[in-house]
């Protein structure tokens, strides 16, 4: 059984698995050593490590480099490739083919754009199609909730040719259950620290729960808290995604 099939088998609606997201070799190695069967990468973490803006399509080389570095850790790896780093389906196909050759089990491709808009549905369908056929699990992410624009159910249904769907920012068990019921594909949601438990999300039909940038942001908080404690100063809260992204170089 190949890596993609083993990864696919982890997706069991009603019994979601937790996918922690790494940002460098050390974080990936620590997660692998802790027994997680699969790990993802986080585009924010990768961008931050290299001093680049997130979700701007500028970290293709760094993303591939990380995938190659962690491929030998003995766990299944799925890679966040933002929007595929191109609007050209042929270039996206080549990217995914290259990752497949490294032994990657999956990719995550989003429809959100840096300017806060969504890629046109027709083009995103072509991008998803281009990513298929390379022997990796293609998770189609829609940023309707994240960017507060567009129709979530329309997008989820439009991406029905993917292997899975991911709706970060989707909150409320009723809303989660509605999306899960709208697609035959396994549903992936983002963990919310104060949100539903894995069991509750499973009861709503979720198959996979990702930590996204949370672990990287928690690592920043831990490092800063340790430094401040030496001076007797209180620990700060975990920074939000927006706060972390704002510290990075901006696109353009």
TrEMBL record:
Pfam families: PEP_mutase. The keyword Amino-acid biosynthesis does not apply. Keywords: Lyase. It comes from the Bacteria. InterPro entries: ICL/PEPM, Pyrv/PenolPyrv_kinase-like_dom, Pyrv_kinase-like_dom_sf. GO terms for molecular function: lyase activity. SUPFAM superfamilies: Phosphoenolpyruvate/pyruvate domain (SSF51621). The keyword Ion transport does not apply. PANTHER family: CARBOXYPHOSPHONOENOLPYRUVATE PHOSPHONOMUTASE-LIKE PROTEIN (AFU_ORTHOLOGUE AFUA_5G07230), PHOSPHOENOLPYRUVATE CARBOXYLASE. This is Isocitrate lyase/phosphoenolpyruvate mutase family protein. It comes from Actinomadura luzonensis. The lineage of its organism: Bacteria, Bacillati, Actinomycetota, Actinomycetes, Streptosporangiales.
């Amino acid at each position: 059984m190949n890596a993609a099939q083993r990864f696919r088998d982890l997706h069991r609606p009603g019994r979601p698995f937790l996918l922690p997201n790494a940002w460098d070799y050390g974080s990936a190695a620590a997660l692998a050593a802790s027994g997680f069967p699969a790990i993802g990468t986080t585009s924010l973490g990768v961008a931050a490590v290299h001093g680049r803006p997130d979700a701007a399509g500028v970290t293709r080389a760094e993303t591939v480099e990380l995938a190659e570095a962690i491929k030998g850790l003995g766990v299944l790896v799925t890679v966040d490739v933002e929007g595929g780093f191109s609007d050209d389906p042929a270039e996206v196909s080549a990217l995914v083919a290259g990752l497949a050759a490294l032994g990657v089990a999956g990719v995550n491709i989003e429809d959100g754009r840096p300017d806060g808009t969504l890629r046109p549905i027709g083009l995103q369908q072509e991008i998803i199609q281009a990513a298929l056929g390379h022997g990796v699990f293609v998770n189609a992410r829609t940023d309707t909730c994240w960017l507060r624009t567009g129709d979530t159910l329309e997008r989820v249904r439009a991406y029905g040719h993917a292997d899975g769907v991911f709706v970060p920012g989707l909150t409320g068990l009723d809303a989660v259950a509605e999306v899960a019921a709208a697609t035959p594909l396994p549903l992936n949601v983002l963990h919310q620290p104060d949100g539903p438990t894995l069991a509750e999300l499973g009861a709503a039909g979720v198959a996979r729960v990702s930590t996204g940038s949370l672990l990287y942001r928690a690592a920043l908080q831990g490092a800063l808290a340790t430094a401040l404690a030496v001076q007797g100063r209180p620990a700060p809260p975990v920074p939000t995604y927006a706060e972390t992204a704002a510290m990075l170089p901006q696109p353009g």
